[in-house]
Design brief:
The structure is a homodimer. In chain A, about 75% of the residues lie in helices and about 0% in strands. The first copy, chain A, folds into 2 domains: about 1-50, Homeodomain-like (Arc Repressor Mutant, subunit A); about 55-190, Tetracycline Repressor, domain 2 (Orthogonal Bundle), CATH 1.10.357. Chain A is mainly α. The interface between A and B is large, with 40 and 40 residues. Chain A binds a DNA duplex (30 and 30 nucleotides) through helix 3.
Chain lengths: ~200, ~200
DNA sequence: GGCCTTGTTGGACGCATGCGCAATAACCTC
DNA sequence: GAGGTTATTGCGCATGCGTCCAACAAGGCC
């Protein structure tokens, strides 16, 4: 294994860990798996991460942040707050994002045993909520939405989407995903004083 | 350890496993833990359960079924479909039921690695949905609710409640549970053509 | 009371895990 | 090119896991 600058190596380890995590799940990811994926020794990983907890947390952070910034960029390309909200829902509806749901599910379950993972997942969850709050606040300022409690509304909508994600991941095929998404969109429209059908393109 | 009839011993093992599971989580539950809890040897457990997967599935089934029948009994004590639906939501709102949410979360996460647990959780999930379907069908027949798609409505409401459960378990303190419950109740009321406030006592 | 079925024991086995550490080798500086 | 810094190795250690099995003992049956 060629010698690498600390920052680059650390980065490479995280990348490899994310790949393993997506394939085998967070709980089944081991130091040896990551080392094999990188083609390096297992000792190297512990040279950069004090514990498995830290490594998994860092890897989860990477994956979730990527998702978050991807959504942020998509939002930036949208004109008004209403269109942004539509984009937000469309992101959740994408079938290719099942891996993200599975990852969040893993993180929630591991949170009980791994402090670092718990802290990271809580932080990122709040980040998603704040993203929604921002959109709603923007919509209210534009006069396109009405909402007395943006913080609360964001939590409610997020809970709704999480439940949807849970059902589709845990019981694929049983639930009609599209139907549940449209429903949640309709609910959000009513919650925010939007006309029905505004968010669907 | 006194000799016991197979059915009773099997029952005792499941009981002990549930207790350990509630305390340490499903993923952290080991054969030795269960044996120690029972005050027996570890070999005894494998005399009744072919694998750890089977044992965990049986224990999860026990806990979830208990919850299910408990709710069924509460529903039986309620008069009409509307009151039954109110009872259904009240069950979810109870703070003492956090252990149930945590257990479901564990089951969903373990499902990827443990076939028996997966089958059990899917079966019980459908059972909960059917319970809701029954209530809605009943309500429509009584003329108290309007719903064109009881099956779909049940899945949507269940997703909503699951999301709520997820947020409150994964991020205790961050989300105002009562606010989210009331919201989901209000949503269900609208979904089923009920007057606002009907389900809240 | 002897026998035989069967619930029960408790440790052994093999495997996998996270982690630590002395040795090695690559790179940089002078 | 010598020397020192440090990224990297790869094996060893302790621990924990699920599973298995030969031995043991407690009943029931005749």
């Amino acid at each position: 294994m060629p010698r690498l600058a600390p920052a680059l190596r650390r980065d490479a380890i995280i990348t490899a860990t994310v790949e393993v995590m997506l394939r085998k799940g967070m709980a089944a990811t081991t130091v040896r798996d990551v080392a094999e994926r990188m083609g390096s020794s297992s000792g190297l990983i512990h040279h950069y991460f004090a514990s498995m907890d830290d490594l998994l947390a860092a890897a989860f952070e990477r994956a979730a942040q990527q998702d978050l910034t991807g959504t942020r960029e998509a939002l930036a390309r949208s004109a008004g707050a209403v269109e942004q909200l539509g984009t937000f829902f469309a992101t959740y509806a994408r079938a290719e994002q099942d891996w993200a749901f599975q990852l969040w599910l893993d993180a929630w379950a591991e949170a009980g045993r791994r402090p670092a993972v718990r802290r990271t997942s809580q932080r990122l969850n709040v980040a998603w909520q704040q993203l929604l709050v921002q959109i709603v606040r923007c919509g209210v300022r534009e006069g396109a939405m009405t909402c007395g409690d943006p913080e609360g509304a964001a939590w409610r909508i997020l809970s709704l989407l999480d439940g949807l994600a849970l059902q589709t991941v845990a019981h694929p095929g049983t639930v009609d995903r599209f139907a549940v998404v449209s429903w949640s969109v309709a609910l959000a429209e009513r919650e925010l004083g939007l006309q029905a059908g505004t968010l669907v393109r």
